[in-house]
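Morning run. Coffee first, then this:
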Amino acid sequence: MRILVVGAGGVGDAVARIAARRSFFELMVIADYDLAKAQASVVAAEAAGGTGRFVAAFVDASSADSVAALAREHGITHVLNAVDPRFVMGIFDGAFAAGADYLDMAMSLSHPHAERPYGEVGVKLGDEQFAKADEWVAAGRLALVGMGVEPGLSDVFARYAADHLFSEIDELGTRDGANLVVTNEAGEEIFAPSFSIWTTIEECLNPPVIFEAGKGWFTTPPFSEPEVFDFPEGIGPVECVNVEHEEVLLMPRWVDAKRVTFKYGLGDEFIGVLKTLHALGLDRTAPVKVKGVEVSPRDVVAAVLPDPATIGPRMTGKTCAGLYVTGKGKDGHPRRTYLYHVVDNQWAMANYGAQCVVWQTAINPVVALELLATGVWKGSGVLGPEAFDAVPFLELLGGSAPVGYDSAWGMEEK
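And here it is:
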């Protein structure tokens, strides 16, 4: 397996650090528009044990031709997209043109319904990719979409719950929360998102999507249906709200459930900041002219906030990603189960030099790549994680090193 990772930000860098300890691939090219960032990731990967298997390169993620040319140059078999979702289609098409398989952690962008954005779906997340599924099938190539942590691991949990825990599912409810705190040099808590603010704005200010059997997909206003969810391993109760996310668009395609939702524990401060950005028009992506220079307001917001890849040393706490499943167990009795994965930032920094949110996102596509390399997972077309057997993934993720990845997942009855 010869892998091209497009993007050397926090997640792409963590992918390299994790993969450096594994032997399933021959070559990993870390590519970025900023070549220095790609080179830094290669240095980190080589220091972690990947000597001789990592190469840095320049790529323009917005250009399918640039992605395809780089993939051909290095004989790439698998392209992993580790950049903002606005670049999905260029990388997706570039991988296809180069004859490579494709993985991503976020899908093609949505576009709200023109007249009823808070009631009906418009162009849904991933629609542009699923529209090309037949081409991937005909070519015998695989596009494994939504294979990060969220989407990704919760989708694996959905497959596992349907196959092994439940006879009937009322709701597949992704519930994510954390107790992370970031401080400045003076020890004062600051506003510093642990993930790309560009992506966070896209997810949180778009109309959230819900799925119901018999009704299909529909939308609600942002931050709707708040609920307090009690997260495990000391995180505790966090208020979660509806957010647009790929799980709701993926799970119903392969798993039978009466309802599918995604709720995220954002917190009052975070919601307030996002609402203010929206009110001021700072969430917009279209360029505006400022003193003769055209700039995207959202890019300006991203530029003035701390880089998520750099805040690890000043972050404390844990992050939790998981799936709350309700329905009937295999014995026919009511069951409410939370399947989850918790990562402590201190552990992630000490063991990988990556903050916990980007590390948790990065480990899942690396596990998936290993399953594809060994032939345990195989397929063609545009497929989500739910289309594959969950057991090998969970065994590899939680198994003891050096065979497994030593990253335990848990299950809690509610």
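The chain has two domains: 2-110+125-148+360-409, 153-357. Good start to the day.
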